[in-house]
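Supplementary Methods, section 5.1.

A reviewer requested that the exact input to the structure prediction be made available. We therefore reproduce it here, unchanged from the version used in the analyses.
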Amino acid sequence: MELRIYKLLLLLQGWGGWLLKQRMNMSA
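The structure derived from this sequence is encoded cell-by-cell as follows.
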C-alpha cells in the first residue's frame, strides 16, 4: 500500500471522528 494513500485514509478517519463529535454536540 502506498504511504500517501495510507496518510490520506488516516486524515479522513480523523476528520470523520471530528465531524461525529460535532454532531453529538449539536444534538446534546
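The chain has a mean pLDDT of 92. These observations are discussed further in the main text.
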